[in-house]
Design brief:
With about 1250 residues, this protein is mainly beta. The protein contains 8 helices and 107 strands. The strands form 11 sheets. The chain has a 25-stranded mixed beta sheet, with no helix packed on it. Strand 52 and strand 53 form a beta hairpin. The longest helix has 27 residues.
Length: about 1250
């Protein structure tokens, strides 16, 4: 019986052991590394339990399979946990480090399989390290647990394969809490050529619940640093070489963690370095090379991420190099985006005191040109991207830049190298507490070329946005990235985009209505980039300080509820209480393509699209316009300086002390309230806005304008007047395009000196409750419409100007009131430019009972100098509108028949003027210019001969000046540096020498008007080149030159005369006396045009002239040299017959005129050279005074002609030359003592008479041989 009982007991014990062994399947490595610990109740100095330790031999299996305490003893062992008892806690004490070598063992160092359901504690001392060197293994892999606690240690997986070993530590399926303190996780690198994937992650948390991280560092592994590849294409088929994706590993991965909450303190999460490609093709023919190496992210995955102090770093993308030894037909697809700092969002987390940095785009080198294509995506990473619904954020967020420093030549190129965003929130609203948010710049230093005329080339290199998404901002510094820099040489058209990024972009929360508040902050848009194209279009605008897009998918401010359909409420409300908002400057957009469009507009301070926008404070400033290859586009960009642009909003409202440093533009807003603030710029009201209020507290500058509408589309603007002073806010109002601007509710009362311009016939200004135009105001209706329901009161010196353009007229429509012109000098100006010689024009309704209430004496009508007019203020046949009747007349007070040589001329002019083909142009000139045109066409000859005479006069003046200069050198003026010789002693000089010289002149003359001739200008210029030889006291030379003159009457005619001259000259004499002789001959051609664009005509002429002059020098005891002189110039002008178009076509006879000009005067100069400020420069100043007498001034002053049809002959008047003139001049002759072969001479002369005044500047350079 006892034996039987013993057998039963032993059997029960064995059954229990079998059950326990089958229930608890823990295991340790037989070769060591870990031992099972059975605590004895004692602890060591560090608080760890003491007890019996059992290694992995089978004899101890009953212990190590069921143990709950394990100790790492060192070496290369492993530990596997499979205890399914959820109530038990397993603790691993890492007393010594474990390193798994690259052997056949691929298991994790610590592995908790799916059967493990209890709590897991890992305790370390002295930063113990678990290192997995096998490329398929990991340091720790937990697939299931209740809670996991890790205290200390470094966990390193050194390398990985494509599908295994992708993390150092993975904690998956943990039901409750993961808590890690003071640990480091190092992700696996890729170091084997056959592995075509990126680096691994340091710490991966899969499907977590609650995560607590304290003093944690988690680093991603590196991609393959030198991924070499090669291929040899021996077929003509299209081939593909794919290098895989070898980017850097992520620092910390949160996988399937959308419902998890993570708390981290002093967290460092850093991505690994991306890998690099080096690919060579021996032969290539129509092959495609695919490569990818983007930067890893610091943290990847979505969770409620809370970080109190941390540094999160995404890394730069990698580099790729491709070279072909033979062949240039290949395609390259390269993706190399910078890694994000945090990728996947933080849900409703809190980030405080964090530094989050993302990586830059990578690099691409293609050694040879290709006829194929290049596709390059190298955008900068975002510091934080993903959903951050309900998050609170503060810290430093730095986005990555687009790829830079690369060039290639290809058939087609598609390049995307944009800067990253500091925060890219794709979820619901977040709150920014403070911090710095800096976007990345677009890529720079890029050169792309293509010689293929059918190629397509495009590049985007825009700056990133500082922050994007539904936002509430307490404070912070926000900066948009700058646009990039690139040069594109392409045969075909290319497109380039390099805008600066926005500092902040507020967007809708997936269609959910929300309130966004900006309490304060600094918002600066990025500058536009620098792009040069040979063909195509380029845009390099500055970014916005703030861009708020509260429009729904329909493009308006309405949203659809789940029930009830569309309701008129906004999708969001933006409230700005303070802050500075500055647009970025435009960049540089250059294209050599005349059909291409370059644009480099400055960014706006703020753009408010949709929603309700309440601005209670802040400063808004536009960015400066950039530079383009189109001056007209630059002018438009520079003129449009928008500080705030609001469109499609339910309400936009300005309150308080808002500073708008630039223009305010509003379009399609349901309601616009400008209750306060200060505008330093124009106010633009566009499209349809029927509920606008501008309070008198809204301040503007006197030189700024309210501009309603533009040239595009139809606009209807209504301004509600709630206070009589509100009409005086603007002193300049412009109604542009097809626009109706209305003032309603109260009478409009303008500011003094208001200027209103209605620019188009479809433009209208309406006063719905009447208006008072105060002192000095002017409304230029043009051909538009001015309407008033109620009295239109025109105050002192105020006016309304209405125009008729020949086909349509402007309108003044006053209903239920009168036009009050009782004030001093109040008036209405009715102007017109009819195309017919008679007719009527209606100008609208001028008030109730206009026939009796309108003061017709203050209606000023001006239809031109060729028309008589009368008015009917209330024409019953024209719906009681005011009508102007006009008819043709040639006003005798402007030009009379007595001014013509015969009645035939006068009749021809009347017939010409009354002909409808000519009438409008002649009438539009006005009386003064019209009379001038008739005079120059039919009464007076142009002043061509006078220009030729004056040219020859100047020619001989220059020759005479040359003679004087030679005498000054060889006579009384010493040529030796006076410091080397006593005063008055001339130095040695050659008996004979040759010298070349050049003189030029520029003259501006003006004739006064006379009873017969108009005032006109006569300008001229010329250059003469001479060469002469000096023999003792005799100089002989030749000269040739050209000159031009222009005679013109503004708004009537202009004639241009070109002359070519040749001369021989001589001077005899020296120190005391001299005699000058010269003979010249020249040809002249005059081209005449008038303002009517009647066919231009030419006048040919020649000129001969002879000059003789003499003088005698006298020395004074004051060191002056006085030279009285007298000269005579005889000139003969011969003009050919010519056909002269005009009002009548004439054949003008040949014409000859002679001039006999006697000149007497005195030149006063210093007797000796003056050393100029002891600089070794000699100078001789000179003063001249002369009397000019024309001995032939009474010559015939008419030239005969015959009409081309031979109907009659007559004559044209010629302006006679002035008989007496006075000429005063000064000159300066300068040369160097050290280089006496070169001289410079400058002269100024004023010639004047009763009817003429002339300013002459001449200069000379002489070189002696």
């Amino acid at each position: 019986m006892i034996i039987f009982k013993n057998k039963i007991f032993i059997s029960l014990i064995l059954i229990i052991i079998v059950i326990i062994n089958s229930y608890a399947q823990n295991a340790i490595d037989l070769d060591g590394g870990f031992v099972a610990l059975t605590p004895n109740g004692n602890i060591d100095d560090g608080g760890w339990p003491l007890g019996e330790q059992y290694d992995g031999v089978n004899a101890n299996s009953s212990i190590w399979r069921t143990a709950t305490n394990y100790v790492a003893t060192g070496g290369a062992g492993w530990l596997q946990l499979g205890n399914p008892n959820a109530s038990e806690t397993t603790t691993i004490y890492l007393r010594n480090g474990i390193t798994r070598v690259n052997d056949s063992q691929q298991d994790p160092i610590i592995y908790a399989n799916n059967d493990f359901t209890g709590n897991l504690y890992i305790e370390t001392r002295d930063n113990i390290r678990l290192q997995q060197d096998h490329n398929n293994g990991t340091a720790i892999n937990v697939l299931n647990a209740q809670n996991v606690f890790i205290n200390g240690g470094t966990y390193d997986s050194t390398r990985r394969t494509a599908n295994d070993g992708q993390f150092a530590v993975n904690l998956s399926g943990v039901d409750n809490t993961i808590k890690i303190d003071n640990a480091t996780f190092l992700g696996p690198d890729v170091d084997q050529a056959w592995v075509t994937t990126g680096g691994g992650t340091g710490l991966q948390l899969t499907s977590p619940n609650i995560v607590i991280l304290n003093n944690i560092t988690s680093e991603g592994g590196m991609g393959k640093q030198r991924r070499e590849g090669s291929f040899d294409d021996t077929s003509n088929d299209a081939g593909t070489w794919t290098g895989g994706s070898i980017g850097g590993g992520n620092g910390l991965t949160l996988s399937a963690a959308g419902s998890a909450t993570v708390y981290a303190t002093n967290l460092i999460a850093e991505a690994g370095d991306a890998g690099n490609f080096f690919v060579t093709a021996n032969r290539v023919d129509n092959d495609t090379i695919n490569m990818e190496s983007s930067g890893g992210s610091g943290i990847v995955g979505s969770s409620a991420l809370n970080i109190m102090t941390g540094t999160i770093t995404g890394k730069d993308a990698g580099e790729a190099t491709f070279n072909s030894n033979d062949g240039d037909n290949f395609n390259v697809n390269w993706t190399a985006n910078g890694g994000d700092g945090i990728s996947g969002g933080i849900n409703a987390g809190i980030l405080t005191n964090v530094v989050v940095t993302s990586g830059d785009g990578g690099y691409l080198t293609i050694e040879l040109p290709t006829s194929g294509s290049v596709s390059y995506v190298g955008n900068g990473g975002s510091a934080l991207s993903g959903a951050a619904s309900g998050a609170n954020i503060s810290g430093i967020f730095l986005a990555g830049h687009g790829s830079s420093d690369f060039s290639h030549q290809a058939g087609d190129s598609t390049i995307s190298i944009d800067g990253g965003r500091a925060i890219d929130n794709t979820g619901l609203q977040i709150t920014i507490q403070n911090g710095t948010y800096t976007a990345g710049n677009g890529g720079t230093n890029v050169l792309i070329s293509s010689s293929d005329s059918t190629s397509t080339t495009s590049i985007t290199s825009t700056g990133g946005d500082g922050i994007v998404g539904p936002l509430t901002i307490k404070n912070g510094l926000f900066k948009g990235g700058h646009g990039g820099q690139a040069v594109l040489y392409t045969e075909n058209s290319a497109d380039a985009l390099a805008n600066g990024g926005n500092a902040a972009s507020i967007s809708t929360a997936n269609g959910t209505s929300f309130n966004s508040v900006i309490e304060n902050g600094s918002f600066t848009g990025g500058n536009g980039g620098n792009i040069t194209l040979t063909n195509g279009s380029v845009i390099a605008n500055g970014g916005f300080g703030l861009y708020s897009d509260l429009l729904d998918t329909d493009g308006d401010s309405l949203f659809i509820q789940s029930v009830g359909g569309i309701i008129t409420t906004n999708i969001g409300t933006l409230i700005i209480n303070d802050g500075t908002f500055t647009g970025g400057s435009g960049g540089r957009a250059i294209t050599d393509d005349a059909t291409g469009t370059p644009l480099a507009r400055g960014g706006f301070g703020a753009v408010l699209a949709g929603g309700t926008n309440i601005i209670n404070g802040g400063s808004f400033t536009y960015g400066n316009a950039g530079l383009t290859s189109s001056s007209s586009i630059d002018a438009l960009s520079s003129a449009f300086k928008v500080a705030i642009y609001s469109s499609n909003s339910v309400l936009t409202e300005i309150n308080g002390e808002v500073l708008i440093n630039g223009d305010f533009a509003a379009s399609n807003n349901q309601k616009l309230n400008l209750n306060g603030g200060r505008l330093i710029g124009n106010l633009y009201l566009l499209n349809s806005m029927t509920n606008v209020a501008i309070a008198s507290a809204f301040e503007t500058s006197d030189d700024q304008s309210l501009i309603a509408g533009d040239s595009i589309g139809t606009h209807e603007i209504n301004i509600n007047v709630s206070d009589i002073n509100e009409g005086a806010i603007f002193k300049n109002i412009t109604v542009a395009g097809d626009t109706k601007l209305s003032y309603s509710n109260l009478q409009f009362q303008s500011a003094n000196n208001l200027i209103v311009e209605i620019l188009q016939p479809t433009g209208e200004l309406e006063f719905k409750n009447g208006a008072k135009l105060t002192s000095g105001s002017q409304i230029n209706v043009g051909t538009g419409t001015l309407s008033s329901s109620g009295d239109l009161i025109i105050d002192d010196n105020a006016s309304v100007d209405i125009n008729f353009n020949g086909s349509s007229s402007g309108k003044l429509n006053v209903n239920s009131g009168i036009v009050d012109l009782s004030a001093s000098n109040a008036k209405i100006n009715l102007t017109g430019t009819p195309t017919n010689t008679s007719g009527t024009v209606s100008y609208g309704l001028f008030g109730d009972s206009a026939a009796t209430t309108l003061d017709q004496s203050k209606i000023i009508v001006d239809f031109g100098w060729l028309l008589d007019t009368s008015i009917n203020p209330q024409d019953s046949s024209s719906s009681n509108e005011l009508v102007v009747t006009y008819s043709f007349v040639l006003p005798t007070n402007h030009i009379s028949q007595g001014e013509f040589s015969n009645s035939n001329q006068y009749n021809d002019v009347v017939n010409y003027a009354s002909n409808t083909n000519n009438f409008s142009n002649l009438n539009s000139l006005g009386a003064v210019n019209g009379k001038e045109l008739i005079k120059i066409s039919e009464i007076n000859e142009i002043n061509a001969s006078d220009g030729v005479f004056k040219d020859h006069y100047q020619l001989h003046n220059l020759i005479s000046a040359r003679n004087t200069e030679v005498r000054s050198r060889h006579g009384f003026a010493s040529s030796v540096y006076q410091k080397n010789r006593p005063k008055g002693i001339s130095g040695p000089s050659s008996k004979d020498h040759s010298q070349g010289w050049i003189r030029s002149y520029n003259v501006r003359g003006n004739y006064n008007a006379t009873s017969l001739f108009s005032s006109h200008n006569l300008d001229g210029s010329g250059t003469i080149i001479g060469f002469d030889k000096y023999y003792d006291n005799i100089l002989i030379g030749i000269a040739a030159g050209s000159g031009s003159s222009k005679s013109y009457v503004d708004s009537a005619y202009a004639s241009d005369t070109d002359m070519v001259n040749g001369s021989i000259y001589s001077t005899v004499g020296g120190r005391k006396k001299y005699l000058d002789l010269a003979f010249s001959y020249g040809d002249a051609k005059t081209d005449v045009n008038d303002v009517f664009n009647i066919t231009s005509y030419d006048v040919n002429a020649s000129m001969q002239s002879f000059y003789i002059g003499s003088g005698y020098s006298l020395s004074s005891n004051k060191g002056l040299q006085l030279t009285p002189e007298i000269s005579f110039l005889y000139s003969k002008y011969d003009q050919d017959s010519y056909v002269r178009p005009g009002i009548t076509e004439k054949i003008v006879d040949e014409y000859t005129s002679t001039s006999k000009l006697l000149t007497a005067g005195v030149n006063i100069a210093t007797q000796y050279q003056i050393d100029w400020f002891n600089l070794g420069l000699a100078m001789i100043p000179e003063f001249r005074l002369h009397w000019l007498h024309e001995m032939n001034s009474n010559e015939s002053d008419v030239i005969n002609y015959t009409l081309s049809d031979g109907s009659y002959s007559s004559s044209l008047n010629l302006r006679s030359r002035d008989e007496n003139l006075l000429k005063v001049g000064v000159g300066l002759n300068v040369w160097s003592w050290f280089s006496k072969n070169t001289r410079l001479e400058l002269d100024y002369d004023l010639t004047t008479s009763d009817n003429y005044k002339e300013h002459l500047i001449s200069g000379k350079i002489g070189i002696k041989f």
